[in-house]
Amino acid sequence: MKVGPNKVVTMDYELRVGGHDGELVESSKERGTPISFIYGKGMVMPKLEEALEGKEEGDVVKVEIPPAEAYGERNEEAIQKIPRHFIPEHIELKEGLLLVMQTPQGEEIGMKVIDFDDETVTVDLNHPLAGKTLYFTLYLKEVREATADELLQLAQQQGQEE
User: Fold this and answer.
1) Domains 7-71+130-161 and 76-124 in one fold
2) 80-119 in b/e burial notation, b at 16+ Cβ within 10 A?
3) Domain 76-124 of CATH type 3.30.499.10
4) Domain residue ranges of the chain, discontinuous segments joined by +
């Protein structure tokens, strides 16, 4: 069966930066858990869907995604200084520490500590992969028709997110 609209795709993937033989960032194989998604429903990056269309179980697909179509370019304005008292006292600060803060509206924001002193903490709000070209290798394990229940459940989830 070929990958196309309303097909469930199950695959393993490797994500690298610096080329297809570059630094390994993430691997579903290492976690031992392939991912599954319904093709055509915006569940993965558009470039990944585009590269998978028409492929079949057993295919290996290599995809290069530039920053603008992945996590965007780095934004130097996303480097901010926040008051030290915003960070809970029990957290031991160190450069490179990844934090998740919650806005008053309940939105979670990831950030990386760049520098700190007694008064302020300098954080980088850019996604860790911002400004990087992503190199995916996709290993198609299964392609099947989505069930009516799967499509209904997805439609309900997407309706709740809007």
Assistant:
1) no
2) eeeeeeebeeeeeeeeebebeeeeeeeeeeebbbeebeee
3) no
4) 7-71+130-161, 76-124
Q: pLDDT truncated to tens, each residue of the chain (162 aa)?
A: 999 999 999 999 999 999 999 999 999 988 889 999 999 988 899 999 999 999 999 999 999 999 999 999 999 999 999 999 988 889 999 999 999 988 888 888 899 999 999 999 999 999 999 999 999 999 999 999 998 888 888 888 877 655
Write the class of the CATH domain 7-71+130-161: alpha beta
Amino acid at 66: P
Could you give the CA distance from residue 63 to residue 137 in angstroms, rounded to a whole number? 6
* Separation between Cα atoms, residue 20 and residue 111, nearest integer Å: 27
Residue 142, number of CB atoms within 10 A of its CB: 14
Angstrom distance (rounded) from CA 50 to CA 82: 40
Q: CB neighbours (10 Å) of residue 7?
A: 19
Query: Which among 115, 138, 131, 114 has a CA at the least distance from the CA of 15?
Result: 138
